[in-house]
Amino acid sequence: MMLFRPVTQDDADQIAALAQQTGTGLTTLPKDPEKLKHKIALSIESFAATVEYPGKEYYLFVLEDTTTGKVVGTSGLAAAVGLEQPFYTYKVGTTVHASPRLGIHKTIPTLILGHDYTGTTEICTLFLSPNHRGGGTGKLLSKGRFLFLKNHPKRFANKIIAEMRGYSDENGVSPFWESLGRHFFDMDFDDADTKSGEDSNEFIAELMPKYPIYVPMLSEEAQATLGKVHPDTEPALKLLKKEGFRYTGYVDIFDAGPTIEVRQENIDTIKRSIDVNVVINSSVDSTQRFLIANRKVEDYRCVLANAQLIDNRIEITAEIANALGLKNDDQAIVTPMS
């Protein structure tokens, strides 16, 4: 069984091993063991905290294969980005240049550096071991966060965002970075991206141009990558679009990957969720799959399992109930899986 739960320090070594497989672009899962332990400690502190409104909290979840005890994936929620240091993005806008005398009217796309997403909640740190992809594990790893968010809305902002990895070629070269960022940073793309994600991003304000960038001045290859994701990220983008996330014209300042957004109440997993009471049966004769979660915080648990929904009751096996830490008549939250 795959179990979605909050991280513990006992998971540190296994997560460190996962981090070595992530390649570039996942800066919220640092490869440095000490930085990773700090992330885990912040997550444990966040789950334990009493929260009335979102702040610097960071919630890291893991996906555990209970048959082996092995951690096979991670995903996270950053409660409110940009509070301790700016959360930079480029807004794709337009400017108009006109000469009535010459009869010329030009609308030119621009990139404007800003931090419009300050205070929003970010879903992040999604990584699943390649050996465990398929069979619904990716959906559990992504959607399990949304039921936690539904259970505890005060911990998060109403607007939820996701930064998607931008396009780079088979050699890891980002056309957008080569056409823009490299001219302002004396470092490679990977170094700048890692420094921004794992350390202070103060250098961005110090080195990035302060004025709008005229998109036609970039290379044609760079222009074509605006809002385009890396091929490996396309399945994640497709999944989030089904959840209701939409691109509204914001892109990453390093690789031009899209930042997508949605309101809490418009997330599909949340919209279709149902509050239920638990009924434990020795066997459950059903082919219907459900995302099933308890209503707890530090002991939050979520699984993807067959169950029987009758009115406001969910019938589950004792194995599932034990994994979720639930007893007869306990409350749970479920979302039917199509």
UniProtKB/TrEMBL annotation:
InterPro entries in UniProt: Acyl_CoA_acyltransferase, Arg_succinylTrfase_AstA/AruG, Arginine_N-succinylTrfase
Pfam families documented for this protein: AstA (PF04958)
Matching SUPFAM superfamilies: Acyl-CoA N-acyltransferases (Nat)
EC number from the UniProt entry: 2.3.1.109
A single GO molecular function term of this UniProt record: arginine N-succinyltransferase activity
Metal-binding is among the record's keywords: no
Protein's GO biological process: L-arginine catabolic process
Source organism superkingdom: Bacteria
Keywords in alphabetical order: Acyltransferase, Arginine metabolism, Transferase
Protein name as it appears in the record: Arginine N-succinyltransferase
